């Protein structure tokens, strides 16, 4: 990152932290709500695993493996909610009020400027909780005498790398959705659309591969909107529930999906911006 851009980002982060600490009770309540949702999600799957050994037949997603997957979801969601969600939702307001005019006049990339001004620090605890769940479940998995799991520094580096790829894909999808605000004028349903789309990536992709409709969803959300690789690939790095050959093509595809998603989202944003008419015009 260009040093000047890094300085701007750190300024955004500092200002957001000062803003959050100015309303500490609200900050604490937001943290509590976020962590409570995650814990209820955890308890739901704990109940499910009292009635079954795995999610899907012969998928390899037993309890410890799945909780590594679930913790990975929490980490990715935390990063998206911390850095991008509030800014994407605020983009339509900038268009409606005309404040986007001022962003376009600034000597800095517009997409960068609208992507990072608000850092939602209250979502960080959810990510830390996810990391704790991953570490706890991984230790339980490695101590299972029936499993042969070897995790070293390379696997952890790959895990972080593929989480980064997943965040890039999710950010790209969000930017594409937010860019529609330029044509729609005010996209108040961004969060709703986001929830509907990302709801599919919260589960292992094998559950979609058992029926015609499921296969259609698997193909759509793997190759058209590649959100299934966001969580499945990094979780497999640690849990390794499937054969290595399957795992390899997904890993390579995740890198391609991240790069392609970023390029497409950049093009859509630029194209949408070319249709923007300033508030003064």
Outline: globular
* Rg (CA only): 20 Å
Helicity level = over 70%
- Broad structural category: mainly alpha
Q: Regions with pLDDT < 50 over 5+ consecutive residues?
A: 242-246
Distance between the termini: 34 Å
Q: Quick check: average pLDDT?
A: 84
Number of DSSP E strands: 0
Q: Report the sheet-strand fraction.
A: under 5%
Task: Name a few traits of the molecule.
single chain; 281 residues; mainly alpha; 11 helices; 74% helix; 0% strand
Account of the protein in words:
It is a single chain. This protein is mainly alpha-helical. The protein has one domain (3-274). 74% of the residues lie in helices and 0% in strands. The protein is built from eleven helices and no strands. The chain has helices at residues 3-22, 24-48, 63-97, 100-105, 110-115, 124-142, 153-184, 190-198, 212-224, 228-239, 244-274. It is globular and about 65 Å long. The model is unreliable at 242-246 (pLDDT under 50).
Concise synopsis of the structure shown:
The protein is mainly α. It has helices at residues 3-22, 24-48, 63-97, 100-105, 110-115, 124-142, 153-184, 190-198, 212-224, 228-239, 244-274.
Secondary-structure map:
Elements: H1 3-22, H2 24-48, H3 63-97, H4 100-105, H5 110-115, H6 124-142, H7 153-184, H8 190-198, H9 212-224, H10 228-239, H11 244-274
Helix pairs in contact: 2-6, 3-6, 3-7, 3-10, 7-8, 7-10, 7-11, 10-11
């Amino acid at each position: 990152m260009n040093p000047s851009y890094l300085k701007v980002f750190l300024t955004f982060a500092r200002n957001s932290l000062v803003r959050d600490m100015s309303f500490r009770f609200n900050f604490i309540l937001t943290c509590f709500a976020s962590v409570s949702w995650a814990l209820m999600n955890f308890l739901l799957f704990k109940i499910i695993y009292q009635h079954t050994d795995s999610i899907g037949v012969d998928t390899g997603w037993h309890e410890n493996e799945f909780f590594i997957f679930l913790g990975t979801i929490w980490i990715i969601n935390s990063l998206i909610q911390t850095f991008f969600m509030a800014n994407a939702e605020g983009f339509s307001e900038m268009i409606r009020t005309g404040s986007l005019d001022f962003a376009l006049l600034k000597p800095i990339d517009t997409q960068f400027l609208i992507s990072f001004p608000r850092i939602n620090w209250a979502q960080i605890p959810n990510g830390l909780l996810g990391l704790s769940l991953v570490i706890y479940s991984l230790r339980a998995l490695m101590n299972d005498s029936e499993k042969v799991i070897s995790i070293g520094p390379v696997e952890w580096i790959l895990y972080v790398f593929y989480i980064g790829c997943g965040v890039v894909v999710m950010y790209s999808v969000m930017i594409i959705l937010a860019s529609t605000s330029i044509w729609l004028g005010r996209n108040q349903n961004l969060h709703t659309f986001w929830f509907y789309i990302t709801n599919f990536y919260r589960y292992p992709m094998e559950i979609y591969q058992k029926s015609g409709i499921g296969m259609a969803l698997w193909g759509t959300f793997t190759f058209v909107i590649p959100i299934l690789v966001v969580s499945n690939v990094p979780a497999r790095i640690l849990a390794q529930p499937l054969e290595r050959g399957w795992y390899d093509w997904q890993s390579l595809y995740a890198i391609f999906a991240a790069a392609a998603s970023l390029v497409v989202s950049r093009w859509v944003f630029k194209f949408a911006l070319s249709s923007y008419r300033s508030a003064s015009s």
